[in-house]
Amino acid sequence: xxxxxxxxxxxxxxxxxxxxxxxxxxxxxxxxxxxxxxxxxxxxxxxxxxxxxxxxxxxxxxxxxxxxxxxxxxxxxxxxxxxxxxxxxxxxxxxxxxxxxxxxxxxxxxxxxxxxxxxxxxxxxxxxxxxxxxxxxxxxxxxxxxxxxxxxxxxxxxxxxxxxxxxxxxxxxxxxxxxxxxxxxxxxxxxxxxxxxxxxxxxxxxxxxxxxxxxxxxxxxxxxxxxxxxxxxxxxxxxxxxxxxxxxxxxxxxxx
Length: 256
Description:
Structural class: alpha/beta
CATH topology of the largest domain: Rossmann fold
Strand content: 15-25%
CATH class of the largest domain: Alpha Beta
Order of helices and strands: HEHHEEHHEHEHEEEHEEEHEEEHE
Helix content: 25-40%
Protein backbone atom coordinates (compact mmCIF):
# COMPACT_ATOMS: atom_id res chain seq x y z
CA UNK A 1 0.00 0.00 0.00
CA UNK A 2 1.28 3.48 -0.90
CA UNK A 3 -0.57 6.21 0.95
CA UNK A 4 -0.77 9.99 0.32
CA UNK A 5 0.23 9.70 -3.32
CA UNK A 6 -0.57 12.69 -5.52
CA UNK A 7 -2.99 12.40 -8.46
CA UNK A 8 -0.03 12.62 -10.85
CA UNK A 9 1.70 9.74 -9.08
CA UNK A 10 -1.47 7.67 -9.31
CA UNK A 11 -1.79 8.48 -13.02
CA UNK A 12 1.78 7.35 -13.65
CA UNK A 13 1.14 4.14 -11.73
CA UNK A 14 -2.04 3.41 -13.69
CA UNK A 15 -0.36 3.89 -17.07
CA UNK A 16 2.66 1.79 -16.07
CA UNK A 17 0.45 -0.98 -14.64
CA UNK A 18 -1.61 -1.13 -17.83
CA UNK A 19 1.53 -1.29 -19.93
CA UNK A 20 2.82 -4.21 -17.86
CA UNK A 21 -0.36 -6.19 -17.13
CA UNK A 22 -3.00 -4.93 -19.57
CA UNK A 23 -5.69 -4.48 -16.91
CA UNK A 24 -6.14 -2.67 -13.58
CA UNK A 25 -9.28 -2.82 -11.45
CA UNK A 26 -10.68 -0.08 -9.24
CA UNK A 27 -10.24 -2.40 -6.26
CA UNK A 28 -6.54 -2.88 -7.06
CA UNK A 29 -5.93 0.85 -7.42
CA UNK A 30 -7.92 1.57 -4.25
CA UNK A 31 -5.93 -0.98 -2.26
CA UNK A 32 -2.53 0.08 -3.61
CA UNK A 33 -2.97 3.74 -2.67
CA UNK A 34 -5.43 3.36 0.24
CA UNK A 35 -8.04 5.50 -1.51
CA UNK A 36 -11.76 4.97 -1.96
CA UNK A 37 -13.05 3.14 -5.01
CA UNK A 38 -14.88 6.35 -5.94
CA UNK A 39 -11.50 8.10 -6.10
CA UNK A 40 -10.10 5.24 -8.18
CA UNK A 41 -13.03 5.50 -10.59
CA UNK A 42 -12.45 9.26 -10.84
CA UNK A 43 -8.79 8.66 -11.76
CA UNK A 44 -9.89 6.22 -14.47
CA UNK A 45 -12.58 8.60 -15.71
CA UNK A 46 -10.15 11.52 -16.06
CA UNK A 47 -7.57 9.43 -17.92
CA UNK A 48 -10.27 8.02 -20.17
CA UNK A 49 -11.52 11.52 -21.02
CA UNK A 50 -7.99 12.39 -22.16
CA UNK A 51 -7.82 9.26 -24.32
CA UNK A 52 -5.01 7.79 -22.20
CA UNK A 53 -6.89 4.62 -21.18
CA UNK A 54 -10.16 2.88 -21.86
CA UNK A 55 -12.68 2.16 -19.12
CA UNK A 56 -14.64 -1.05 -18.77
CA UNK A 57 -16.90 -2.06 -15.92
CA UNK A 58 -14.84 -1.94 -12.72
CA UNK A 59 -11.48 -1.67 -14.45
CA UNK A 60 -9.19 0.13 -16.89
CA UNK A 61 -7.53 -1.19 -20.05
CA UNK A 62 -4.88 0.30 -22.35
CA UNK A 63 -6.12 3.03 -24.68
CA UNK A 64 -8.16 1.89 -27.65
CA UNK A 65 -7.61 3.07 -31.21
CA UNK A 66 -10.66 5.31 -30.72
CA UNK A 67 -8.47 7.77 -28.83
CA UNK A 68 -6.10 8.25 -31.79
CA UNK A 69 -6.36 11.05 -34.40
CA UNK A 70 -8.91 10.50 -37.18
CA UNK A 71 -6.38 9.74 -39.93
CA UNK A 72 -4.61 7.20 -37.73
CA UNK A 73 -7.89 5.59 -36.67
CA UNK A 74 -9.01 5.18 -40.27
CA UNK A 75 -5.99 2.96 -40.94
CA UNK A 76 -6.56 0.77 -37.86
CA UNK A 77 -8.29 -2.54 -38.70
CA UNK A 78 -9.15 -1.14 -42.14
CA UNK A 79 -9.76 -4.60 -43.61
CA UNK A 80 -12.08 -5.58 -40.76
CA UNK A 81 -13.94 -2.28 -40.99
CA UNK A 82 -14.44 -2.73 -44.73
CA UNK A 83 -15.83 -6.24 -44.19
CA UNK A 84 -18.29 -5.10 -41.52
CA UNK A 85 -19.14 -1.96 -43.48
CA UNK A 86 -20.17 -4.04 -46.49
CA UNK A 87 -22.74 -5.86 -44.32
CA UNK A 88 -23.99 -2.54 -42.98
CA UNK A 89 -24.26 -0.87 -46.39
CA UNK A 90 -26.44 -3.74 -47.61
CA UNK A 91 -29.11 -2.66 -45.10
CA UNK A 92 -29.87 0.56 -46.99
CA UNK A 93 -32.91 0.46 -49.27
CA UNK A 94 -33.90 2.51 -52.31
CA UNK A 95 -35.48 5.85 -51.45
CA UNK A 96 -34.65 5.83 -47.74
CA UNK A 97 -33.54 8.80 -45.67
CA UNK A 98 -30.33 7.80 -43.90
CA UNK A 99 -28.47 9.62 -41.13
CA UNK A 100 -24.72 9.18 -40.76
CA UNK A 101 -22.86 10.66 -37.83
CA UNK A 102 -19.07 10.79 -37.88
CA UNK A 103 -16.33 8.24 -37.36
CA UNK A 104 -13.97 6.10 -39.38
CA UNK A 105 -16.26 3.06 -39.38
CA UNK A 106 -19.17 5.08 -40.76
CA UNK A 107 -16.83 6.44 -43.43
CA UNK A 108 -16.06 2.83 -44.33
CA UNK A 109 -19.83 2.19 -44.60
CA UNK A 110 -20.22 5.16 -46.95
CA UNK A 111 -17.44 3.81 -49.15
CA UNK A 112 -19.17 0.41 -49.43
CA UNK A 113 -22.56 1.68 -50.63
CA UNK A 114 -23.50 0.77 -54.19
CA UNK A 115 -23.20 3.72 -56.58
CA UNK A 116 -26.48 2.65 -58.22
CA UNK A 117 -28.53 2.99 -55.02
CA UNK A 118 -30.71 6.11 -54.85
CA UNK A 119 -31.37 7.51 -51.37
CA UNK A 120 -31.04 10.67 -49.28
CA UNK A 121 -28.09 10.99 -46.89
CA UNK A 122 -27.82 13.46 -44.04
CA UNK A 123 -24.51 13.67 -42.22
CA UNK A 124 -22.45 15.76 -39.83
CA UNK A 125 -19.21 14.44 -41.34
CA UNK A 126 -17.55 16.31 -44.23
CA UNK A 127 -15.55 13.17 -45.12
CA UNK A 128 -18.70 11.06 -45.35
CA UNK A 129 -20.47 13.75 -47.39
CA UNK A 130 -17.55 13.78 -49.83
CA UNK A 131 -17.52 9.99 -50.13
CA UNK A 132 -21.28 9.81 -50.78
CA UNK A 133 -21.17 12.67 -53.29
CA UNK A 134 -19.26 10.42 -55.70
CA UNK A 135 -22.62 8.86 -56.58
CA UNK A 136 -25.06 10.91 -58.65
CA UNK A 137 -27.92 8.87 -57.18
CA UNK A 138 -27.44 10.11 -53.61
CA UNK A 139 -28.82 13.40 -52.34
CA UNK A 140 -26.28 14.53 -49.75
CA UNK A 141 -27.10 17.03 -47.01
CA UNK A 142 -24.15 18.18 -44.90
CA UNK A 143 -25.28 19.61 -41.57
CA UNK A 144 -23.71 23.00 -40.90
CA UNK A 145 -22.30 23.87 -37.51
CA UNK A 146 -19.05 24.23 -35.61
CA UNK A 147 -16.40 21.86 -36.95
CA UNK A 148 -14.80 19.77 -34.20
CA UNK A 149 -11.29 18.73 -35.35
CA UNK A 150 -11.14 15.90 -32.79
CA UNK A 151 -14.23 14.06 -33.99
CA UNK A 152 -14.10 15.52 -37.54
CA UNK A 153 -17.82 16.31 -37.21
CA UNK A 154 -19.95 19.42 -37.19
CA UNK A 155 -21.50 19.97 -33.77
CA UNK A 156 -23.43 22.60 -31.85
CA UNK A 157 -26.92 24.07 -31.67
CA UNK A 158 -27.34 24.50 -35.44
CA UNK A 159 -26.72 20.79 -36.00
CA UNK A 160 -29.07 19.78 -33.18
CA UNK A 161 -31.82 22.07 -34.51
CA UNK A 162 -31.48 20.62 -38.01
CA UNK A 163 -31.55 17.01 -36.79
CA UNK A 164 -34.71 17.64 -34.77
CA UNK A 165 -36.47 18.52 -38.04
CA UNK A 166 -35.56 15.17 -39.61
CA UNK A 167 -37.33 11.81 -39.54
CA UNK A 168 -34.90 9.22 -40.88
CA UNK A 169 -35.47 5.61 -41.84
CA UNK A 170 -32.03 4.50 -40.70
CA UNK A 171 -29.22 5.95 -38.60
CA UNK A 172 -25.67 4.64 -38.71
CA UNK A 173 -24.17 5.63 -35.39
CA UNK A 174 -20.43 5.48 -34.84
CA UNK A 175 -19.38 4.61 -31.31
CA UNK A 176 -16.13 4.82 -29.39
CA UNK A 177 -17.54 2.46 -26.78
CA UNK A 178 -20.45 0.05 -26.57
CA UNK A 179 -21.05 -1.71 -23.28
CA UNK A 180 -23.93 -4.00 -22.30
CA UNK A 181 -24.45 -2.22 -18.98
CA UNK A 182 -23.45 1.38 -19.68
CA UNK A 183 -24.57 1.76 -23.29
CA UNK A 184 -23.03 3.87 -26.06
CA UNK A 185 -20.28 6.36 -25.19
CA UNK A 186 -17.85 8.81 -26.77
CA UNK A 187 -14.97 10.93 -25.41
CA UNK A 188 -16.52 14.24 -26.50
CA UNK A 189 -19.53 16.04 -25.00
CA UNK A 190 -20.79 17.83 -28.14
CA UNK A 191 -20.36 14.68 -30.21
CA UNK A 192 -22.46 12.74 -27.69
CA UNK A 193 -25.29 15.28 -28.04
CA UNK A 194 -25.20 15.10 -31.85
CA UNK A 195 -25.19 11.31 -31.92
CA UNK A 196 -28.03 11.12 -29.38
CA UNK A 197 -30.15 13.51 -31.45
CA UNK A 198 -29.59 11.45 -34.61
CA UNK A 199 -30.56 8.25 -32.82
CA UNK A 200 -33.76 9.88 -31.53
CA UNK A 201 -34.64 11.05 -35.05
CA UNK A 202 -34.42 7.57 -36.64
CA UNK A 203 -36.69 4.56 -36.98
CA UNK A 204 -33.84 2.03 -37.08
CA UNK A 205 -30.40 2.47 -35.50
CA UNK A 206 -27.42 0.44 -36.72
CA UNK A 207 -24.03 0.38 -35.00
CA UNK A 208 -20.93 -1.13 -36.57
CA UNK A 209 -18.13 -1.88 -34.11
CA UNK A 210 -14.76 -3.60 -34.14
CA UNK A 211 -13.73 -5.60 -31.08
CA UNK A 212 -11.82 -2.74 -29.46
CA UNK A 213 -15.10 -0.80 -29.11
CA UNK A 214 -17.02 -3.62 -27.40
CA UNK A 215 -16.93 -3.29 -23.62
CA UNK A 216 -15.14 0.07 -23.84
CA UNK A 217 -16.59 3.07 -21.98
CA UNK A 218 -15.66 6.65 -22.87
CA UNK A 219 -16.40 9.76 -20.81
CA UNK A 220 -19.75 10.87 -22.27
CA UNK A 221 -22.85 8.75 -22.66
CA UNK A 222 -24.74 8.85 -25.95
CA UNK A 223 -27.67 6.58 -25.14
CA UNK A 224 -28.76 3.37 -23.50
CA UNK A 225 -28.00 0.14 -25.33
CA UNK A 226 -31.67 -0.44 -26.16
CA UNK A 227 -31.53 2.51 -28.57
CA UNK A 228 -29.62 0.23 -30.98
CA UNK A 229 -31.62 -2.15 -33.17
CA UNK A 230 -28.73 -3.86 -34.92
CA UNK A 231 -25.05 -4.29 -34.05
CA UNK A 232 -22.65 -5.54 -36.71
CA UNK A 233 -19.50 -6.87 -35.05
CA UNK A 234 -16.50 -9.12 -35.63
CA UNK A 235 -17.04 -12.87 -35.66
CA UNK A 236 -13.75 -13.66 -33.92
CA UNK A 237 -11.93 -12.02 -31.05
CA UNK A 238 -12.18 -11.31 -27.35
CA UNK A 239 -15.65 -9.72 -27.25
CA UNK A 240 -17.69 -12.96 -27.29
CA UNK A 241 -19.03 -12.65 -23.73
CA UNK A 242 -19.95 -8.99 -24.15
CA UNK A 243 -21.73 -9.72 -27.43
CA UNK A 244 -23.83 -12.40 -25.73
CA UNK A 245 -24.80 -9.88 -23.04
CA UNK A 246 -25.68 -7.34 -25.73
CA UNK A 247 -27.93 -9.89 -27.45
CA UNK A 248 -29.64 -10.62 -24.12
CA UNK A 249 -30.48 -6.90 -23.95
CA UNK A 250 -32.57 -7.28 -27.10
CA UNK A 251 -30.11 -6.01 -29.71
CA UNK A 252 -29.84 -8.03 -32.92
CA UNK A 253 -26.18 -8.96 -33.42
CA UNK A 254 -24.81 -9.84 -36.85
CA UNK A 255 -21.25 -11.16 -37.02
CA UNK A 256 -19.00 -10.66 -40.00
